[in-house]
Amino acid sequence: MRVTIADIAKRAGVSVNTVSRALSGKDGVSEETRAKIVKIARELNYRPNLLARGMRQDRADFIGVLVLDIGNTVFSRMIRGIENELVGESMTIIIGNSDENVAKERHYLEMMIMTNCRGVIISHASTEALRFLKKEGVPFVVLDRDTQGFPCDQVYVDNVSMGYQATKHLVDLGHRDIIFISKQSEVDFDHRKRAQGYELACGEHGLRQRTRVYECVDAAEAKLLIEAIWQEEQPTGLVIGQHSLAEGVLAGLTGLGVRIPEELSVVIIGEPTWASFLPWTFTTIERPLERIGEMAARLLLNRTSNKLTDDYQRCVLESHLVVRGSTGPPRN
Amino acid sequence: MRVTIADIAKRAGVSVNTVSRALSGKDGVSEETRAKIVKIARELNYRPNLLARGMRQDRADFIGVLVLDIGNTVFSRMIRGIENELVGESMTIIIGNSDENVAKERHYLEMMIMTNCRGVIISHASTEALRFLKKEGVPFVVLDRDTQGFPCDQVYVDNVSMGYQATKHLVDLGHRDIIFISKQSEVDFDHRKRAQGYELACGEHGLRQRTRVYECVDAAEAKLLIEAIWQEEQPTGLVIGQHSLAEGVLAGLTGLGVRIPEELSVVIIGEPTWASFLPWTFTTIERPLERIGEMAARLLLNRTSNKLTDDYQRCVLESHLVVRGSTGPPRN
DNA sequence: ATGAAAGCGCTAACAA
DNA sequence: TTGTTAGCGCTTTCAT
What we know:
In chain A, strand 6 (178-183), helix 9 and strand 7 (212-216) form a beta-alpha-beta unit. The first copy, chain A, is elongated. The longest helix of chain A is centred in the C-terminal third of the chain and has 18 residues, at 289-306. Chain A is α/β, with parallel strands linked by helices. Chain A folds into three domains: 5-43, no CATH class; 62-157 and 290-317, Response regulator (Rossmann fold, 3-Layer(aba) Sandwich), CATH 3.40.50.2300; 159-288, Rossmann fold. The first copy, chain A, has helices at 5-12, 16-23, 31-44, 50-57, 73-86, 102-114, 127-136, 159-172, 189-204, 219-232, 243-256, 289-306; strands spanning 62-67, 92-97, 119-122, 140-143, 153-157, 178-183, 212-216, 237-240, 265-269, 283-286, 314-317, 320-322. The first copy, chain A, starts with a helix and ends in a 10-residue tail after the last strand. In chain A, strands 2-1-3-4-5-11 form a six-stranded parallel beta sheet, with helices on both faces. In chain A, strands 7-6-8-9-10-12 form a six-stranded mixed beta sheet. At the A-B interface, helix 4, helix 5, strand 2, helix 6 and helix 11 of A face helix 4, helix 5, strand 2, helix 6 and helix 11 of B. Chain A binds a DNA duplex through residues 2, 4-6, 14-18, 20-21, 24, 27-30, 33, 48-49, 51-58.
């Protein structure tokens, strides 16, 4: 059997109460008894039972983290940030993976509630999840997503700015004919915002009539799309709104024999790991992923400690332009 | 306050015991009372308190997962596999990130023990961690690592085979002058094994005197290394033992203007996400990462349910060769 | 400064 | 089949 405070109490000749107070750093214990107790605890290799403590206090030092796809670098880097912030607080992270599946998402939320966790950091698959958390009174922070009016704590990156920065970079290089390839999605407004940023930059530079946003659902469709587009028109600049689409677009461009950046400058919004070092490197707009995770953890800790109610915290981080080899002046 | 079985008992006019039995599917409850209780539980939106249950049963449905770097795709994909296997078992995953830091590793192990978790799946930073787990009597499975004689459950990929397959592929293409760039590490025997596989393949084909293994610690050093090597000699084939080194090696080769695969065929051992679709694609030897995670979870469940003691389970998975554009016949 | 005792929600042993 | 009761390990009143 594991060592309990009762064992320590017996050995020290004091009550369990005293042991509890001594070990949890409360006062009301003389320094000498505390020292004695701490010493014995160490000797016996005592480890507190987090379940017992959590039950008694009606809340455990657990934080739930629920993401759309744990296998995706974007999320795992954010989780890294969360972990980095929480490790010092002795919080235990409970992980959930929704796979963008509403039923799985709900399953994990139930689990997290059942463990009496302090709060949840979530990249939600459905707004229903957020409503549920609010209804259940679980503190939560939304990760990397502007909830579009749903009032809650949230950390995200300014998507309009991402689209804007990408486009502005091309404009500054002299491009006047720039298209945007966007991911189609009903639930996710982020892509729309990136496209808005693109339109904004175009508008500011008198390119309104040369503004085209194309939509597709995945990389495979993106490949067909760029092939079709190139048939019709040959812009000098291209902004890809989502790095997961990039692979299809690039495959298409390669097939067409389009040279980058000589014939076409390309900016990718997102963080493809391969962008940085390949012979053919890409200019990107990147999010500070670890930072997003850290901030989300911080906001959650704020909320759980301060018991705030309606004054939601919103943290908007900036993306940054990383210029590499896929952009240059327009052809001729 | 949350709904407890006492609330349900009162409402149903039965004892807490009956409620407990009814809800946990034990027999000794008539079907009609069970139905009534289940109905009430649902109405009241009852959720069992996992902490209370865990404490009473002296073990909770938690599984600890401790990896070297949660932000790394390799680990997050394995975690994805673990999650996939455990979600059906209603296990809760507690995540830990050691950053290859022994102190952090120990910290998380302590945490996991304190939550009475069922067992741990670990990619360890130190053998000390394994000794600790064994000493504490915590069931565990080592993830993606041959523990080199340390007796425990483990899932890993045959590293010798990885090196062998990579080299054999080049030999089959006609290469007779192949070098190997390896990652230097005292704790990790995997790299050494990959190099052994390389040597084995060379030996089998009479290339023993043309066998050279170069070592470096990271990508930056790898870049310098390949530059120095190319100064001295120009092999026709190159095996990169670790995909994280590839970025440096490729940067170096690009700088030197070496054409791939015309002048040099390259095989990368590992799973760089960018390998598959870029204009310049790479032949790789890949591990079934999700599968590794799934198997590890499965082994752990086996162990925790069967209470085996010394007959350790070892699961060796096969890597596979993915031929892409970076390999071809040797020059001239 | 310290101790006694209650109780968090649940399960399991024992009774009825 | 169902109820009573003890107790998991801890924290927290309330006494002393």
